């Protein structure tokens, strides 16, 4: 296995000042590696390395930067199978899902490299003769990025690729439970010829490394994907230095099924959206709102399809659901489920820990489906992030819309109907950043993955995601040889 005992700062492999931290395999509980635990001082050193490297990287043409990124994409594809297997080992998703994730990790670099000729400015007419006004898009400078554990390879690319094409340098902290994919990819960055300091991978805890990276005055942008509590801490820390933040936080996606929906499509979509990655996706189907006319049929078919899923060793091609990422996450989902039942939810499919674990020592949790839920229950309000889903009867489209919007989250929402009027009303009225009609995720590279309310300000992907990594500079280019003062209708007074 690759040596994971050092992190990548300023083009050097460096041990952690605070020792090491074990990374556990969620399938069997064994230790995969001991990774470096950085000190706050090392995090600050990584910021300094990025600051030193950024001007030279920005001085290259976007095409030159894109060429390096195309090399990274090719290397990720060349290393696809070992990287996918590493994702499975540290995170627990199935090998088929991991291969898809690694494919996406490569595509981020290919996609954003293609912006080399597409980062556009503007030329505006001036009020003065012999003058033009230019609005340029320039790098923000030094980016710090914090990513979670559920997509340990793809989210590295999602942050690093737009940062690189924009001309920034970046310091990225992977989650302490799943840092191996990021460290593996750091070797690919080096092999691709990324200049020293342009990309830095620093490993360690959120309270130490994460706090240092997000509160330092010499950063220009914080981008983070993760939980709402962590997002609040980051926003507070960055505010002290007036540093902009882009946060993609939690979700509580409703999956609405109307009486005219294609039930084959709706059931298959609902199962996939709830149980992919063991339910550990921010856009997962977190609550099902099903019209009373088809509720019984839908629930029966949903439970039948759920029972047919194969829970087991995620390295096997036949497995549909792997383990939870950690024992702590497993116990959290158990508490959420028990609280829902105590509130009156009725188990339609009782999951929980299996009597016999598919692999000894792993974090195994069987799917649970809960009925008799009401909108005021915690299970309908709070993110579950596991293989548990509540299902509720609704009597009308209007009721479904009301329950959908009564959420402190606003990331993704799903609607299954063939009524065009309802589709357009949902497009207009659903207060979520993403709406999927008669389909589920994942989101597209060229889209914009963004949320409302507690799902966070900012977003990722596409042209609008790239905008976060660029700032605007306005230039007043006077070539008349005369001062425009006195000719302007407004002179700053």
Task: Please provide a written account of the structure.
By secondary structure, the chain is an alpha/beta fold. The chain has two domains: 7-249 and 456-474, 3-Layer(aba) Sandwich (Aldehyde Dehydrogenase, Chain A, domain 1), CATH 3.40.605.10; 253-437, Aldehyde Dehydrogenase, Chain A, domain 2 (3-Layer(aba) Sandwich). It is built from 14 helices and 21 strands. It has helices at residues 40-59, 62-78, 80-91, 95-113, 154-166, 180-192, 206-215, 228-239, 263-275, 292-307, 327-343, 397-405, 420-429, 462-467, and strands at 7-9, 12-14, 20-24, 31-36, 122-125, 131-139, 142-146, 169-173, 199-201, 221-225, 245-248, 253-257, 285-291, 346-349, 368-371, 388-394, 412-416, 434-437, 449-450, 459-460, 470-478. Strands 14-15-16-13-12-17-18 form a seven-stranded mixed beta sheet, with helices on both faces. Strand 12, helix 9 and strand 13 (285-291) form a beta-alpha-beta unit. Helix 3 packs across helix 4 and helix 3 (80-91) packs antiparallel against helix 6 (180-192). The longest helix is centred in the N-terminal third of the chain and has 20 residues, at 40-59. The termini are far apart.
């Amino acid at each position: 296995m690759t040596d994971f005992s050092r992190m990548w700062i300023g083009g050097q492999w460096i041990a952690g000042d605070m020792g090491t931290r074990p990374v556990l395999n969620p399938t069997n509980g064994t230790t995969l590696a001991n990774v470096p635990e950085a000190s706050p001082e090392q995090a600050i050193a990584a910021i300094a390395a990025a600051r030193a490297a950024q001007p030279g990287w920005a001085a290259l043409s976007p095409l030159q930067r894109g060429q390096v990124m195309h090399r990274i994409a090719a290397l990720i594809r060349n290393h696809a199978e070992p990287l996918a297997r590493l994702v499975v080992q540290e995170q627990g998703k199935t090998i088929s899902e991991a291969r898809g994730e690694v494919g996406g990790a490569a595509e981020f670099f290919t996609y954003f490299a293609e912006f080399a000729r597409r980062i556009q400015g503007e030329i505006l007419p001036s009020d003065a003769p012999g003058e033009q006004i230019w609005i340029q898009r320039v790098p923000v400078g030094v980016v710090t990025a914090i990513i979670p554990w559920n997509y340990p390879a793809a989210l590295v690319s999602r942050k690093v690729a737009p940062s690189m094409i924009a001309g920034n340098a970046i310091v990225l902290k992977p989650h302490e439970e799943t840092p191996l994919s990021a460290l593996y990819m750091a070797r690919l960055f080096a092999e691709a010829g990324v200049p020293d300091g342009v990309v830095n991978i620093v490993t360690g805890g959120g309270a130490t490394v994460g706090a240092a990276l997000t509160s330092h005055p010499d950063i220009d942008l914080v981008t983070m994907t993760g939980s709402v509590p962590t997002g609040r801490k980051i926003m507070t820390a960055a505010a002290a230095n007036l540093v902009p933040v882009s946060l993609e936080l939690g979700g509580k996606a409703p999956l609405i099924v109307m009486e005219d929906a294609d039930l084959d499509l709706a059931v298959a979509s609902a199962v996939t959206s709830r149980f992919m990655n063991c339910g550990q996706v921010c856009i997962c189907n977190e609550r099902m709102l099903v019209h009373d006319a088809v509720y019984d049929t839908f629930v029966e078919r949903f439970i039948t399809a759920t029972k047919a899923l194969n829970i087991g060793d995620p390295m096997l091609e036949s497995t549909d659901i792997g383990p939870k990422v950690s024992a702590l996450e497993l116990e959290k989902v158990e508490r959420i489920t028990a609280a829902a039942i105590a509130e009156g939810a009725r188990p339609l499919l009782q999951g929980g820990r299996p009597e016999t674990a598919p692999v000894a020592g792993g974090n195994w949790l069987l799917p649970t489906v809960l009925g008799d839920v009401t909108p005021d229950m915690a299970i309908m309000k709070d993110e579950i992030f596991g293989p548990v889903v509540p299902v509720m009867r609704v009597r009308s489209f209007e009721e479904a819309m009301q329950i959908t919007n009564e959420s402190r989250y606003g990331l993704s929402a799903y609607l299954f109907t063939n009524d065009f009027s309802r589709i357009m009303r949902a497009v207009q009225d659903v207060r979520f950043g993403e709406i999927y009609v008669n389909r589920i995720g994942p989101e597209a590279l060229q889209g914009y993955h963004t949320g409302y309310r507690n799902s966070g300000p900012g977003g990722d992907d596409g042209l609008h995601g790239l905008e976060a990594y660029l700032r605007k500079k306005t230039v007043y280019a006077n070539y008349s040889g005369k001062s425009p003062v006195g000719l302007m209708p407004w002179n700053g007074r």
